[in-house]
Each structure stands twice: as structure tokens, then as C-alpha cells.
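User: My collaborator and I are trying to settle a disagreement about how two of our proteins should look. Neither of us wants to argue from intuition anymore, so we agreed to look at predicted structures for both before our next call. Could you fold the first one, then the second, and keep them clearly separated?

Assistant: That sounds like a sensible way to settle it. I'll keep them separate. The first protein:
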Amino acid sequence: MDLSTGSFSSCDELESCHLPLITGLPDDIALFCLARVPRKYHTVLKCVSKGWRDLVCSEEWRVYRQKNNLGESWIYALCRDKSTDQVNFYMLDPSSSRQGSWKSINGLPPRCLKRKGMAFETIGKKLYFLGGCGWSEDATDEVYCYDVAMNAWSEAPSMSTARCYFGCESMDGKIYSIGGYGLETSDPRSWDTYDPRTNSWDSHSDPNIILDIEDSVVMGGKIYIRSRTSTIPPHVYIAVYDPSSGKWQQTDAEMALGWLGPTVVVDDTLYVLDQSLGSKLMMWQKNDSEWVPLCRLSPLLPRPPCQMVAIGRKIFIIGKGLSTVVLDIDNVGNADGVIASSSTPVFSCDDDVICCKCVSI
């Protein structure tokens, strides 16, 4: 009898340890309600209680919002201030009603601040800063991680190979670090893959990986990398990786002719910003193997050099000083029309944009 009483007492203690998210409601109903709070107020939610903070910072929260079409994408930009030769990190909430809502994010690891040739990639709610080198520093294999929900930095497992100025993409929940330059013993025709489930890297090599990678993109479940020689006129090479075969091969020569600028993929269609004579948005028509001009941009905005990122059917073109032009793919005109709808930073910034990524929570 005493054992039975003690057992019930233990159960009662366990139940009392769990505090409901909202008093009087089951936690699944509380999650249903809280998940509908706009992302800009998530910082406030984290201040209510430890339970709310842990929930908002969890992977469960992100997945629940994604499954119920509640996810909101914010843009993160890795930039370089030429006056200080230092890397800066910014964030933009596209839904903000205020013009120029770019905000600086502090806390970049000091070892990253002066590095060049770093890669910048995302998985889930985490952003990864990979590799890089400096004037007095060889290429490194170091990886740092920024958890967007927790607003916290940490050191992630190092790559299998030290790299700088390399291709980097995420696909199927893994990060691919491709080619580039590294230590003298490195194989430039190699790539590493990071799996967050095992928290480890695997190394691979393939003689078909091209050198001098300038850009990369994921399209149709494959990774495309582009390089360009210094010849005049420049000659562009493109290689594609198919995960089903685990091999690289060179691809469409016609595609290479028009891929001469920053890229973005919207609904499995590739768009390129041609900045050779002004700024013109081009679309790759895969079935016809040709590039089609969509529209020209204002000569004033965005200020080149530019990078691009997509949220839904909208393309954000982000230039020097974080000058931002937003294009709706469904409403763009033709190549004879000039379109410019911009969001201009309100703070003083003349940074060059290295790379832009979106994180949806």
C-alpha cells in the first residue's frame, strides 16, 4: 500500500513539473493560437515565460508554422565594408511597413570579420558561415552557425577540407561545399557534404568539377556551378551535380552563354541579372534552351554589384549599400519597359553585398 501511494505521489510531482503554455488550455491548442502570432512579435513572445521562449526557439515551432502555411521569410545579407575591409551582417523583414527596414545583426565571430572568400548557407532556422581566408591566413575549414530563432552564435563541425572562394548550396537538408581554393594539399576538384542529422561532413572528389567557381544555384533537384576564365571575351563553364548518380558533368552550352550575373530560382525557373549594359533581368527557358529578356531596371537602383533572393513569386535585387528593388514575376513588363520599386536603407551604409539568403519561420 505504501509503494502504491509513493507511485501516485511521483506521478503527481511529474505532472506538477509541467506548466501549461496557456493556463486552462491543452498545449496543442495553445500552440495553435501562439503559432499565428506574426514573426515580428516573436521576440516579445520569448519574454513571457521560459516555456514560451523554448517553444519559439524550437524546431517544432518552425515546422508547425511551415506545415500550416504560417511561415514568414526574412532576408539575411552578408556584406563587406570596403572602408574597414570588415564583414557585416544585416536582416530585412520584407513585410515591414517602414521603408528601409534593414537591421544590423551583431555578434559575428571575430575570426570571420576580416575573411574573404567565405560561403554563406542556410538549413532550417540556422545560417552557416563557412571557410574563407585572409592576407595572412590560409584557407580555413572553420564553420560558424547563427540560430535565427535563438539569436545565438555557435561553432559548427569543421569542413573536411579547408576552402575559400568556393561554391556552396543547400539541397535536401544538406550543405554542399564545392571546389574553390584551399591548402596546398587540398584537392580543388572535391566537395564536402554536411548532414545536420549526423552533425558531420563527408568528403568526395570528381574530375568533372570545374575550377574558379563564381556562382552556384539549385534547380530541379540538381546543383549547378558556374566558372568563368579571364579570357576576352570570357568563356563560361557550367557543371551540374545529380544526387541520384552522385556525379558531376558539364552541361548546356547555351545556358552558359547567358549566365553572366547573379541568379535566383523561382518555381524551378532560373533568372539572371545581366549587369553588363545597365541592369536587365533574364529568364532561362529550358525547353527552348534560350535566354529571354524580361525587363530593364532603373539605372539608379539597385546600385551594382548586386545579389538576388526570392520569396514566393517576388525577386529581391539587393545592391551596394543594401539598395533594394522588388520585382513581382507575375507583373514584370517586357525588355523595353523600365521597372523599379525599391526599399532604400535609412542608415548610412556603403557595403558591397556578398551573398543573400532567406530563412522562413
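The second protein, kept apart from the first:
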Amino acid sequence: MILPAIRDFKDVEKLSRSHYKQCVILDTHIGHLGHILDLLKSKEVFIHIDLIKGLSGEDAAVEYIIQKYKPFGIISTKVKTIRKAKQLGVKTIIRVFIIDSSALARSISIIEQSEADYVEVLPGIASKVIKEVKDKTGKAIIAGGLIETEEEVARAHADGAYKVTTSRRELWQKYEPND
């Protein structure tokens, strides 16, 4: 239901002790990545590669991250990054920002080109868009961005979101799995 998104080291420590099986790493420095992944070794970690400071957007950066750190998956807004990660055998999430009907049409095309495993739709509170992207692509949709309340989580799921990413720790606690 919830896919915790980690923004700072306090979140890493908290999540390492939780029952969540998966998480997303956002906004970190390449020099901290190894330590973070060591602390989260019991989790399936998606790395948002576009937000890792100290990396370029080149294929070599994707290869380096996957070969060195062996994440469960990669998140990116870039089709070529998603394709490279898929080629290297990890799960992929293409992240799309849908702000108007033109962006929706572009995003559908990007999703189809990328052949990602999952699609993260931002903003996650765009309930009409979640359903439309799911219907048009047949992909599992992750709602992300601007989700701050239990009602927004419930709405995203009601509209067809497979999971909801959030960095709000109070929502992690509310929806933490029991096992």
C-alpha cells in the first residue's frame, strides 16, 4: 500500500527497523549510498538514480550503480535510463509528471517507450490521471507527490494506484505492515 520514500538519514534508521519490505531512496549523495544500502540490506530498495548527487545521466552511471550496489530497482524520468536498467535485470519505475493534457499524452508515449515495470505518476493526488494512465498503459501505477493525508492515500488506491510513495513518516507508521 505505502512505498516509503527516504529523504534523510533519520528516515533510513527508522525504516531499517520497520516491517516494510520495499522502499525508495531519494536525494542522497553517491558517497553515502553504500552505507544506506548496508542499513537497508533486508529491504528491496529502489534507487531514484536521477536524484543521486555525484552521478551523471550516462549509461555508465546506471551500470555502476547496479553492478556495485545491486539495488532491487531503479527509478528515473529518462527512457534510456529505464531501458538500461531493464537490460541489466533490475525492476524499473518510470516517473512521469502530469500537469496538463499535453503532458498526459507525452507521458503515455514515454511509458510505452520505456517498457518500465511500474509507473509513478506525479502528482499523486491527480486521481483522474492515475486511472487514465493505468487504463491506457496497463501498467501498475504508483502515486507520488503531494500525498500528505490518509484520505489522499485512500483516494489514490480507490483510483487504481498499486502503491503510494510518501516521505511522510506518520503515513509510514499508519500503514506499516504487521509482518
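Some points you might bring to the call about the second protein. The chain has one domain: 2-175. Residues 82 and 114 are 6 Å apart (CA to CA).
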